[in-house]
Amino acid sequence: MCPDRSGRAAPRIGRWNPAAVPGPGRVLGGRREAVPVVPGEDEDRSAGPAGPFSLKQLTRLDEALTLSSRETGVQFSLYVGALGPDPRRNAEDLHAGLGGAAPDSVLVAVSPGERRLEIVTGEHTAKRLPDRSCALAALSMTASFNGGDIVGGVVNGLRMLADQVGKPSLTPR
User: Fold this and answer.
1) How confident is the model at residue 1 (pLDDT cuts 50, 70, 90)?
2) In a domain? residue 173
3) Helix (H) or strand (E) run with residue 27 in it
4) Does the reported pTM lie above 0.70?
5) Looking at the domain assignment, is residue 38 inside a domain?
6) Measured between alpha carbons, how far is 141 from 165 in angstroms, rounded to an integer?
7) Residue 40 is part of a domain; what is its CATH number?
8) Would you put residue 13 in left (φ > 0), alpha (ψ -120 to 50) or beta?
9) Phi then psi for 109, rounded to 5 degrees?
10) Is residue 3 included in any domain, yes or no?
């Protein structure tokens, strides 16, 4: 969820049955390297990177991140991998790792093995993206995850978040 001002824990993802996401995840988006993703059974992985995502899926994720960032002026990033015993804190640490871009960014962190989803917004972005909008995007994503479509869930969630953020403001902060 968005920066949790109320101290509430993010929702656990229901019957999500993820394919194993081996090894540590990495941040995708901005200046970070690609993240492995879970492939569909019918997709060709021969040209894809090592990891659970096919090249086609990585391309879909990259396009969604790029379009969301371009349309809003906000840097959207994605992390897929283990979030550990304190998922919210780890997601916030990953977000802080975006450095100077963190205040104007959104990180979507997905841990299929732990059935967790965290959405972390930067200080400036939180003013444009209310908690309620993050909760609706999270609900949409988890519904797709429960159906076995991690990539589709993330892509649709990014669209929802970008729609709520809107176009960049022309006035200075």
Assistant:
1) very low
2) no
3) strand 27-28
4) yes
5) yes
6) 17
7) 3.10.310.50
8) beta
9) -110, 125
10) no
As a whole-number percent, the residues of the chain with pLDDT over 90 amount to 61
Q: What single string gives the DSSP state of each residue in 68-120? A: HHHHHS-EEEEEES---S-HHHHHHHHHHTTGGGGGGEEEEEEEGGGTEEEEE
Q: How many domains does the chain have?
A: 1
Across residues 99-123, what is the average pLDDT?
93
Quick one: 41 exposed, middle or buried, by C-beta within 10 A (0-12, 13-18, 19+)?
exposed
3-class secondary-structure state, position 2: coil
Q: By residue range, what is the domain housing residue 136?
A: 27-165
The residue count for the chain? 173
> Per the domain annotation, does 49 fall within a domain?
yes
- Number of helices (H) and strands (E) in the chain: give both, helices first: 4, 4
Q: Is the pLDDT of residue 9 over 60?
A: no
Q: What local confidence, expressed as pLDDT, does residue 168 receive?
A: 80
